[in-house]
């Protein structure tokens, strides 16, 4: 159990997000005062799950308005904070203008937050939510990694503005974070690099990309089959605990792959069969690669390059540093998928 000091506040950027919600819960339950930086602190409906959480815990929450692209907007929220958790960054794969929608908010937002940290005397640790996407672009990149396995020593070199711009945004943003951290010697930067995040959300209307994937497992889209698209996944609650450890363990340093399972999209669907197979059209079979190749660009606007590099390609990453250095334990894949799926059933998310 990580000891969490409660004598100073901590800042969480993007506090209304999927991952941030569970992190805020951990902090509030420990009795911490959380400075929650959000785009609109007056949006009571969007922040309702956080205010409800705070009401039932020994911690306190204070909301601050801040914008990734507005320089200096995190200054007030960061004042007096000992730890900064920078979780805010757009995660979407359907974009019209990747520079404007992904690269700018990720990179300029990181610059904005870390420049403010560089000027805020109270800050002693910054934890940046990076991604395994800053390590690889496509599952095929695993084959080129030493021993066929991704590690923290590897940086993504294959993403670009035109191919997997989300991965490109995470790579550029994390590199910028390390550059800015190295220009000072007061605080320590630690990064967590999660794979695809799954599990239930604390917000009533979750917006993470992973919910879009799971929705297709319940609404019939994947009834004919699911692609064996190689990915890693991690439960959102395990990831929140990893953030806490990265912030408060004195020896935590560097990058950490936070990923519970080397898997693929079909295996996620099959994890739902024992509990939901009789009542929902969850995928049971593999969709042949040639069919994904044929239909992907037409149905889901997925490029053929992406299909070639990820479908029927195994994804492998080494999560041993997260276990040894941060003490992370990973819950079973089936537990995460069932609890996420049940939440979507309760929210009537599968009605087309």
UniProtKB/TrEMBL annotation:
<keyword id="KW-0560">Oxidoreductase</keyword>
<comment type="similarity">
    <text>Belongs to the NAD(P)-dependent epimerase/dehydratase family. Dihydroflavonol-4-reductase subfamily.</text>
</comment>
<dbReference type="Pfam" id="PF01370">
    <property type="entry name" value="Epimerase"/>
</dbReference>
<feature type="domain" description="NAD-dependent epimerase/dehydratase">
    <location>
        <begin position="10"/>
        <end position="252"/>
    </location>
</feature>
<dbReference type="InterPro" id="IPR050425">
    <property type="entry name" value="NAD(P)_dehydrat-like"/>
</dbReference>
<dbReference type="InterPro" id="IPR036291">
    <property type="entry name" value="NAD(P)-bd_dom_sf"/>
</dbReference>
<protein>
    <submittedName>
        <fullName>NAD-dependent epimerase/dehydratase family protein</fullName>
    </submittedName>
</protein>
<dbReference type="InterPro" id="IPR001509">
    <property type="entry name" value="Epimerase_deHydtase"/>
</dbReference>
């Amino acid at each position: 159990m990580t000891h969490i000091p409660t004598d100073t506040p901590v800042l969480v950027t993007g506090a209304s997000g999927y991952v941030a919600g569970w992190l805020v819960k951990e902090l509030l339950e420990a009795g911490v005062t959380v400075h929650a930086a959000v785009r609109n602190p007056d949006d009571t409906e969007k922040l309702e799950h956080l205010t409800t959480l705070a009401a039932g815990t020994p911690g306190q929450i204070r909301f601050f308005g801040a914008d990734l692209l507005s320089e200096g907007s995190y200054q007030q929220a960061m004042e007096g904070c000992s730890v900064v958790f920078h979780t805010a960054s757009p995660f979407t794969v359907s974009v019209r203008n990747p520079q404007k929608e992904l690269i700018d908010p990720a990179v300029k937002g990181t610059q904005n937050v870390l420049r403010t940290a560089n000027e805020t005397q109270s800050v002693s640790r910054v934890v940046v939510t990076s991604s395994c996407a800053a390590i690889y672009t496509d599952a095929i990149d695993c084959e080129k990694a030493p021993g066929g396995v991704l590690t923290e020593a590897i940086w993504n070199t294959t993403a670009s503005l035109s191919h997997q711009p989300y991965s490109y945004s995470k790579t550029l943003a994390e590199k910028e974070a390390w550059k800015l951290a190295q220009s000072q010697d007061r605080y320590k930067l630690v990064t967590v690099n999660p794979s695809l995040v799954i599990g239930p959300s604390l917000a009533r209307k979750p917006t993470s990309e992973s919910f879009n994937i799971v929705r297709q497992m319940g609404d019939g889209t994947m009834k004919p089959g699911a692609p064996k698209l190689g990915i890693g996944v991690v439960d959102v609650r395990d990831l929140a605990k990893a953030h806490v450890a990265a912030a408060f363990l004195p020896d935590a340093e560097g990058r950490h792959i936070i990923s519970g399972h080397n898997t693929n999209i079909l295996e996620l669907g099959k994890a739902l069969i024992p509990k939901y197979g009789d009542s929902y059209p969850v995928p049971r079979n593999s969709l042949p690669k040639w069919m994904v190749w044929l239909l992907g660009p037409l149905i889901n606007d997925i490029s053929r390059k992406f299909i070639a590099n990820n479908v029927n390609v195994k994804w492998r990453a080494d999560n041993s540093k997260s276990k040894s250095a941060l003490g992370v334990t990973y819950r079973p894949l089936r537990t995460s998928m069932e609890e996420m799926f049940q939440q979507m059933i309760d929210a009537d998310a599968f009605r087309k």
